[in-house]
């Protein structure tokens, strides 16, 4: 059974077909990079998987279960977590409060399913655990807007991991980071346990090839290539699409 099985999914915006009959299968434990030029439809595909956009056609299964019509929180309780290309942090709250919101939102979703809400004290314990695991206790009371951009991107990933997802989607986790911050975030992702399947969008080839087992290339809403990093690197056709060059 796949972690994620996307079959012939399309998403339209008015007359624009942003995602055009895309099929994609991600094995459990896999690290898959999704590459492609600006406007290729990468974020829109993530939104279809996360439930932020409705697929006009096709089906999406998470660990064998059909989720195509489910709202985002129902997908979250089935093990899906994601980060966004544009940060969704609360800049005027402390780091700890941001983590609390992530934990609380998840348990509110579970509550509707299992009818066992966690108490506020339990939620705080869970937050402390997350801060400890990720070495963030020292920064817990810092206001998010006072953190470096690198720390903010890292916090987003930690918040996505806070509820122990089985499938993690990362939309350009290293965008806008310095090379030192990029290295930090790359190693954080590379070191995740294989219980977490990772699908990530990345423009930095070095990062993509460092982390990914396989690479999928999207262009104009369609998958144009799929292969091991070495195969993708060697494919002149892909260089032409992705870099606009043939050498
Ligand atoms: N909410 C929206 N309304 C209308 N058009 C949209 C919307 N979101 C995306 N699009 C269009 O869909 C296409 C795919 O956009 P998308 O953001 O998915 O690309 P992307 O591959 O993530 O690009 P980037 O690398 O720049 O982030 C583009 O033509 C874009 O203009
Ligand atoms: Mg995008």
Fill in the keyword field for this structure:
247 residues, alpha/beta, binds adenosine-5'-triphosphate, binds magnesium ion
Describe the protein.
This protein is globular. It has a 6-stranded mixed β-sheet, with helices on both faces. A 4-stranded antiparallel β-sheet has the order 2-1-4-5, with helices on one face. 38% of the residues lie in helices and 24% in strands. It has a single domain (4-243), classed as 3-Layer(aba) Sandwich (Rossmann fold), CATH 3.40.50.300. It has 9 helices and 10 strands. The model has no long low-confidence stretch (mean pLDDT 92). Helix 3 (95-114) packs across helix 4, helix 3 packs parallel to helix 5 (149-161) and helix 5 (149-161) runs parallel beside helix 6 (179-190). It is an alpha/beta fold.
Break the fold down into its secondary structure elements and pairings.
Elements (H helix, E strand, L loop, with lengths): L3 E10 L2 E11 L4 E5 L6 H9 L6 E6 L2 E2 L5 H5 L3 E3 L12 H20 L5 H14 L15 H13 L5 E5 L7 H12 L6 E5 L3 H7 L2 E6 L2 E6 L1 H6 L1 H8 L4
Parallel strand pairs: 3-8, 3-9, 6-7, 7-8
Antiparallel strand pairs: 1-2, 1-4, 4-5, 9-10
Helix pairs in contact: 3-4, 3-5, 5-6
Bound molecules: adenosine-5'-triphosphate and magnesium ion.
The site of adenosine-5'-triphosphate has 12 residues, from strand 2 and helix 1.
Short overview:
β7, α6 (179-190) and β8 (197-201) form a beta-alpha-beta unit. The chain is built from nine helices and ten strands. The radius of gyration is 18 Å and the shape is globular.
Task: Spell the H/E element sequence.
Answer: EEEHEEHEHHHEHEHEEHH
Number of domains: 1
Oligomer: single chain
Strand order of the largest sheet: 6-7-8-3-9-10
CATH class term = Alpha Beta
Mean of the pLDDT scores? 92
Number of strands: 10
Distance, first to last CA: 39 Å
Which molecules are bound in this entry?
A: adenosine-5'-triphosphate, magnesium ion
Q: Name the shape in a single word.
A: globular
Strand content: 15-25%
Per the CATH scheme, the topology name is: Rossmann fold
Rg, Cα atoms, Å: 18 Å
> Which structural category do the helix and sheet elements fall into?
alpha/beta
The second-level CATH architecture is: 3-Layer(aba) Sandwich
CATH homologous superfamily caption: P-loop containing nucleotide triphosphate hydrolases
How many helices in DSSP terms? Answer: 9
